[in-house]
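Design job #97: recover the sequence.
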């Protein structure tokens, strides 16, 4: 998988994370992740009654938050 440059990964390359995994990764509560998803700040896919967040969406959100803070 290409990690340099900006390309859209093929669906088979997308790694989906659970809300709990995103919360652990970001060191926030699951409720905070749900708020980010519902507000549209964090891209997620609904699967049944739960959400899956593409790993790239978490990286992009954190990159944007980091840039906004500097």
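Job complete. Output follows.
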């Amino acid at each position: 998988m290409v990690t340099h440059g900006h390309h859209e990964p093929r669906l088979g390359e997308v790694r989906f994370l659970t809300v709990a995994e995103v919360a652990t990764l970001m060191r926030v509560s699951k409720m905070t992740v749900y708020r980010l998803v519902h507000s549209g700040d964090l891209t997620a896919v609904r699967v049944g009654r739960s959400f899956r967040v593409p790993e790239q969406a978490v990286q992009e959100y954190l990159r944007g938050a980091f840039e906004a803070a500097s």
